[in-house]
């Protein structure tokens, strides 16, 4: 082959090695690393240049990966497996090892290719947990409805007191199922991508929500106050942001005892608008705080079900806010109160007109 053609092939080979997302190692039969690309160095927690010449067994902490390579050497056949905890990053990798025999090489070499599937496995776990949680949340009210309906069918319908009680419970459980299905639909829409947006005054929206919830707060023996800066303009999905404010205010009222107070504060901070909902409620234990935005996670399961909560409210808040380029925060002291806050980018373009 002409020298120029060899040079072109070498350049193409170098580009392929460095630009592919997969980690690639070329090894000899003893396990010495002859070549490594940048992705391989990243996944193994080392610079690719620091890998050259080192034995594979000294470069990775996974005995499973080394055993896979050894099996490929002994059998001279391709091997493939999923391997956990490789290198310093604790990645989950799909690893394949295949023998190669370049025409000019005196002995077989081996190509080891690694694909990072850590995020894929995490998402699969989230999906499994979500399906299990949905099944559990639906099973309880459905079982209650069926048991009471069967009891009524067996003759309890003739006892007006029992029948009224059972029918009331059936209606309540049916309403709970409706709330769960509605919240699941809202959550699905929040996760489906960038929401449709329009320009509106967030100050007016928050003031309207606060006014709407004041009767509910009064019935619970609470005071609901608001401090809202005027002219907080945003470019966002009006209905979704309203859902965020409604969920946070509703939660604050539900978990604050009679005699307490809830306060909604909204103000401009640099390029963002920050909204805080502060309550003097039961608070959240430190160990629960990292998980409260998970789907169906409840700090107080009995109280949540009694109040009609679905366990999806804060997850909806998180997904909507993050889809708008904002962040959600919580600060809480158990038995003292909580502050839930979210930020959303201000609409600087509208303000400049």
Explain what this protein looks like in three dimensions.
- The protein has about 350 residues and is an alpha+beta fold.
- The chain folds into three domains: about 5-115, PAS domain (Beta-Lactamase); about 120-190, Signal transduction histidine kinase, dimerisation/phosphotransfer (DHp) domain (Helix Hairpins); about 195-353, Histidine kinase-like ATPase, C-terminal domain (Heat Shock Protein 90, 2-Layer Sandwich).
- Helices cover about 50% and strands about 25% of the residues.
- It is built from twelve helices and twelve strands.
- The chain has helices at about 5-20, 40-45, 50, 55-60, 65-75, 120-155, 160-190, 200-220, 240-255, 300-305, 315-325, 350, and strands at about 25-30, 35, 80-85, 90-100, 110-115, 200, 225-230, 235, 260-270, 270-280, 330-335, 335-345.
- Strands 2-1-5-4-3 form a five-stranded antiparallel beta sheet, sandwiched between helices. A five-stranded mixed beta sheet has the order 7-9-10-12-11. The protein has a two-stranded antiparallel sheet with strand order 6-8.
- It is elongated.
- The model has no long low-confidence stretch (mean pLDDT about 85).
Secondary-structure element pattern, one letter each: HEEHHHHEEEHHEHEEHEEHHEEH
Classified in CATH, the superfamily of the largest domain is Histidine kinase-like ATPase, C-terminal domain
Indicate the overall shape: elongated
CATH architecture of the largest domain, please? 2-Layer Sandwich
